[in-house]
Write a structure and sequence with these properties.
By secondary structure, the chain is an all-alpha fold. Helix content is 81%, strand content 1%. It is built from 15 helices and two strands.
C-alpha cells in the first residue's frame, strides 16, 4: 500500500477542510463548475471520475473469468454477499438509522437523499482497492482477480436495475434516464476503454502495462481527492451548520461493512473454503465501489445533494475500516482453519 492509499482517510479529512474553506472564499468559482452540465452530467466532475475509474479498470483481466470454477465455493459466497445481501442490508440500515432513528437530528429535506446515497454506495462491489486488501491478508491472487472480473461483468447489467429497485422500495423517485446515462458513462464506456487500452499495452509486453498502471495510480487518487474538494465546497454550509451529519451517516456504513464481512467469512468457513480465499472473500463482500457511487450520486441528485455527501462519508471510513477487517481475518486464521477443515471433511464424507 503506497503513501496515498495508507493515509487516504487523512487526505479525505483535509479535503473536507479545504473544500469547506474554498466554498466560502470563492463561491463564484464553484457556481461556474456547477453550471457546466449537459443532460444533468457535470462535465468537470465526469472528467475527474474517468480519471478515477479507468486506471482501476485497467487492472482487470477478463480472461481471469476462466479461473472462477477453480474457487467456485468462494466465488459463490462472495456473489451472494455482493448482490443478494449487501445492497439490501444497506437499504434496510439506511432506512432504519437515517430515515427513523437519526431523523430528528438531520435536515428533513435531505433524509431521502442521504438514504439514496447509502444505497448507491452499497450497490456495486469494489474493483480496485480489494487488490490491496487481498495482498495485505495474503489472499489467493487468482481468486481475487477472477472474482473482481466477474463482479465487473455483473455490474454492467445489474447496477441500474438494482439501484432502481432499492430506490423505489425506499420510496425515492428514480430518474431512470439519468440512471441509465450514468451506467453507460461511468461503467460501460470506461470498461470498454480500459480493456482496449489494456490490450494495446500488452501488445508491447507486460512491462508496458505495469509501467502505465504505476504512473496512473496517483493520478486516480488525486482525481478522487479533487472531486471531494468540489463536493465539500458545495456542502460546506450544511456541514458547518450540522457537523454531526457525517458521524450519523457513518453509523450504517460501519455496521454494513462488519456485517457483510463477517457473514462472508462465516459462510466460507461453513462451506470449507480455504482461508486464503475466505479472507479476500470477506473483504470483497464488504467493500464498496465508492468512485462509482460518488459519480452516480452527483449525476442523479446533484453536487450539493445529501446523496453525494453520503457517498463521500463512505470514502472517509473506507481505509481504516477495511484495515481493521484485514487485521480480524488474519488474527482469526487458526479458528477459521479448524472449522473449515472440519466442514470440508464432512462434505467429502457426504459425497462418498
Amino acid at each position: 500500500m503506497n503513501l496515498f492509499e495508507r493515509y487516504l482517510s487523512l487526505w479525505v479529512a483535509l479535503c473536507i477542510v479545504a473544500g469547506v474553506a474554498l466554498g466560502h472564499l470563492v463561491p463564484g468559482a464553484f457556481a461556474v463548475i456547477a453550471g457546466a452540465e449537459v443532460a444533468r452530467v457535470n462535465l468537470p466532475v465526469a472528467g475527474l471520475v474517468w480519471l478515477m475509474i479507468i486506471p482501476m479498470l485497467l487492472k482487470i483481466d477478463f480472461g481471469a473469468l476462466g479461473q472462477v470454477r477453480e474457487h467456485w465455493r468462494g466465488v459463490g459466497v462472495t456473489l451472494f454477499i455482493n448482490w443478494a445481501v449487501k445492497p439490501f442490508s444497506m437499504a434496510l440500515l439506511g432506512s432504519l438509522f437515517i430515515g427513523h432513528l437519526f431523523a430528528p437530528l438531520l435536515p428533513s429535506a435531505q433524509i431521502q437523499s442521504y438514504v439514496a446515497g447509502l444505497i448507491l454506495l452499497a450497490a456495486a462491489p469494489c474493483t480496485a482497492m480489494v487488490f490491496v486488501w487481498s495482498n495485505l491478508c495474503e489472499g489467493e491472487p487468482h481468486y481475487t482477480l477472477s472474482q473482481v472480473a466477474l463482479n465487473d461483468v455483473i455490474m454492467v447489467f445489474a447496477f441500474a436495475p438494482l439501484v432502481g429497485l432499492l430506490l423505489g422500495v425506499a420510496s425515492i423517485a428514480v430518474p431512470w434516464a439519468t440512471l441509465l446515462i450514468s451506467v453507460v458513462l461511468y461503467i460501460v464506456v470506461p470498461v470498454i476503454m480500459a480493456q482496449l487500452w489494456r490490450r494495446a499495452l500488452l501488445a508491447s509486453g507486460p512491462a508496458a502495462l505495469q509501467k502505465t498502471q504505476h504512473v496512473l495510480q496517483p493520478v486516480s487518487l488525486v482525481a478522487l481527492l479533487t472531486t471531494l474538494v468540489l463536493l465539500f465546497g458545495f456542502q460546506g454550509e450544511q456541514i458547518i451548520a450540522q457537523p454531526l451529519v457525517i458521524v450519523l451517516l457513518a453509523v450504517p456504513i460501519l455496521i454494513q461493512v462488519y456485517l457483510n464481512a463477517g457473514l462472508a467469512y462465516w459462510l466460507s468457513r461453513r462451506f470449507g473454503v480455504a482461508w486464503c480465499v475466505a479472507a479476500p472473500a470477506a473483504l470483497i463482500g464488504a467493500s464498496n465501489f465508492f468512485e462509482l457511487a460518488v459519480a452516480a450520486a452527483i449525476s442523479l441528485f446533484g453536487l450539493n445533494s445529501g446523496a453525494a455527501l453520503a457517498t463521500v462519508v463512505g470514502v472517509l471510513v473506507e481505509v481504516p475500516v477495511m484495515l481493521s477487517v484485514v487485521y480480524l481475518v488474519k488474527a482469526s486464521r487458526g479458528w477459521y482453519e479448524a472449522g473449515a477443515g472440519a466442514a470440508a471433511a464432512v462434505s467429502k464424507e457426504a459425497r462418498t
